[in-house]
Amino acid sequence: xxxxxxxxxxxxxxxxxxxxxxxxxxxxxxxxxxxxxxxxxxxxxxxxxxxxxxxxxxxxxxxxxxxxxxxxxxxxxxxxxxxxxxxxxxxxxxxxxxxxxxxxxxxxxxxxxxxxxxxxxxxxxxxxxxxxxxxxxxxxxxxxxxxxxxxxxxxxxxxxxxxxxxxxxxxxxxxxxxxxxxxxxxxxxxxxxxxxxxxxxxxxxxxxxxxxxxxxxxxxxxxxxxxxxxxxxxxxxxxxxxxxxxxxxxxxxxxxxxxxxxxxxxxxxxxxxxxxxxxxxxxxxxxxxxxxxxxxxxxxxxxxxxxxxxxxxxxxxxxxxxxxxxxxxxxxxxxxxxxxxxxxxxxxxxxxx
Length: 353
What we know:
Layout: H1 2-24, E1 45-51, H2 55-63, H3 76-85, E2 88-94, H4 105-125, E3 130-135, H5 141-153, E4 159-163, H6 177-185, E5 189-193, H7 209-227, H8 230-233, E6 238-241, H9 252-262, H10 266-271, H11 276-282, E7 284-286, H12 293-302, E8 308-309, H13 319-328, H14 334-348
Parallel strand pairs: 1-2, 2-3, 3-4, 4-5, 5-6, 6-7, 7-8
């Protein structure tokens, strides 16, 4: 019996050590591991889903009682402390909901410009620690095209941030075609974040909107792009979808069936000439609020590890939860984790490499 106890203790010790290596990239108890949850001295992860709160965004949302309490007290110092504690070398900044749009083009322009210039300053002031996904003024198209050009040409943005919907239309809508054409010309990275469409804000009082609707609207946005033919027409846009693609991996059979129905007509066949699976497998997905085997399992069966990027949704979720969740999934080897947590983002966003 004593031998069995010793063997069990040794097994648990090794299991804990392995988990520590996967979570931090360094052995537990080593000088690099950090004591008491302190900073990891050789951070390597790249967080593609990391929020920040620029001044005019905060002021405007707070005045309208739309600032999520999780954003109170958020600062660059708090972000960097969390990054350092969890082995995150760089985080790509994007603004959270409610974004820039309050029905007024001029106000949206001021919020977007303030947010993009604030992000660019953080990138410049903290070399290597931050990237930026520039925000736009959609649904106003003309000012969005102008802000995109400014963000890329003057601020050296790493990519563009778009929402999954703009009230009553989604990303594959023809109204966005001029923007998608320009993004395709620039071979841009477009990071998408879910938000609530006009139809679906108060459907189930017991379930807060982010609980169900966010994953559902991510799926709507993907369906809009793929089934409209936008992903085929604009093949050089690199799309990153939040939250492991929402419910899309689970609904894959329905995507394939609908694409098959469309393909029976000449017009439908032209929209997705390579098939729906081809288009879905080219998309990128982050791990935010999905760092568990129930979400990662279906996603990893659909796309290769090369299409998955580490994302945390900070400050809505602690970075540590994402790190430990991915390590505990049982789906990724140490080499796989390196690809997901760093290599894929380096390929998409070379400045952070």
